[in-house]
Amino acid sequence: MQFLIIYLACFAFICSSNGSVVKKGYFWQVTDFHYDANYSTNGNPNTMCHSDGGKSHSNSIYGNYLCDSPMKLIISAIDAMQSIHPNPDFIFWTGDSVPHVNNSDLDQTKIYYNIGNVTEQLMKVFPNTSIYPVLGNHDEYPKDAFPPGATSYYSDILTVSQWSKLLGENEATVFKTGGYYSSLLNPNLLVLGLNTNLYYGFNPLTQNSTDPSGQLKWLEKQFKQAQISQKKVIIISHIPPGLFELFSGLMWFSNNFNEKYVHLVSQYSGIIAAQIYGHEHTDSFRILKDRSGTPSGMLFLSPAVTPWKSTLPGVGSNNPSIRLYEYNRDTGEILDYHQYFLNLATVITTNKDIWQKEYDAKSDYGLTSLNPVDFMQAAQSFRNSPKLFKKYLQYNSVSQNLNPVCNDTCKRVHVCSITELRMSDFNDCLNKPNPTLNPEPHSHPHTTPRPKAHVPRYMVIVICTLAGTVFVLAVIVAIICIKKHTVFIPHQYSRFSSPVGKGPIN
């Protein structure tokens, strides 16, 4: 009986919330295509690989580090997604399909058709997969100038750019009010597709607004409803809150919007399973904290498909990338993600588009899980672990820069950008003697909680299997003893022991 109880207890642990067989699913994130219809293999790389007055240049059919994506690269990326994992639960497409060209080279109609061309490619390769899109800051004309309120722009994205084929009727109705929506991924999980371009510091149309398009009020309502109905939420958007890790002091949102947004997502971090963004073109992550400074949420920042070299000093280019996530279908928890890339340097010489895995987040960062406490410990270890930090820097450029150089100031900016989402906290972090040891905001001293002791799942299974085997053997021995008319006497410290010679108690 004792062994039976142990066996059942182990089995119950495996089937409990902490040790259950997770309902694992997969989804893709693809971002920042920046499709340039004017890309030419004979174009001048110094002018976005466009024509050069009859002069001939030699560019790969799949792109150039100084230029945006040709259609060949976009098709290659989407085909690679289909080849690597053809049946994802869904796809998150996190914005920016329009190239980095002057406004004078574009107009509103070109914007719509540019986005529509990418929409068609995704639907063609994944005809039976739900695709959830959000707008990027370049997906408007002029760029960055996203209007607050219901305008024809949002309606035309649905019709001309064909997003009405991706979003349901209810989602499309909400989208018309400001470019955002909510949709059920499954009965337990809600996706909130946001238009954070409304909060962009370079958006001239919303700087005097308190809540452009009413999105913050709507967002809080969605959080409250999810809380009541016991649903988890995944946020997807283009521009993330916080600061850019490669350019000290550059915060994407206007400060007032950043404060409001970070406060809101921190307040409801208990129901937010993950936040997923694009925009930066680099590979990084951010850690959300609650009011006490405890890590409470993760922001995953995926790198771009376009290899385009940023105009910001020191930022550089990246290799084209796509990202596959593993997640818990019940809770939305991100279990792991797998980064894939196209080594453009090799492609330029061979013209062969061979996509390969760059890394697995969990194993390559040495994490037991992808929760914010584990990621905080990883970020804190960057200062004292040059090898791990160098690995992060390499991944930051999608392995375009294999020998990154980063001095102590550079390292501080990286770590403080990862661990602090508010400008004041970021500045405090930079000025601390060792920002990796005390990255918490404000002046409330505390220590980052250690993660709970974690027993590997395979050990649980081994222990339970052994317990079950012992139980079976005990039953066999008991049967043999009974057949031989021998009294079975349990161990003297057994909870179920009985007086010698009186037999077991039933």
TrEMBL record:
The keyword Transmembrane helix applies. CDD domains: MPP_ASMase (cd00842). Its EC number is 3.1.4.-. It is an enzyme of class 3 (hydrolase). It is found in: Secreted. Keywords: Glycoprotein, Hydrolase, Membrane, Metal-binding, Secreted, Signal, Transmembrane, Transmembrane helix, Zinc. Residues 28-282 form the Calcineurin-like phosphoesterase domain. GO terms for molecular function: metal ion binding; phosphoric diester hydrolase activity. Belongs to the acid sphingomyelinase family. This is Sphingomyelin phosphodiesterase acid-like 3. It comes from Mytilus galloprovincialis.
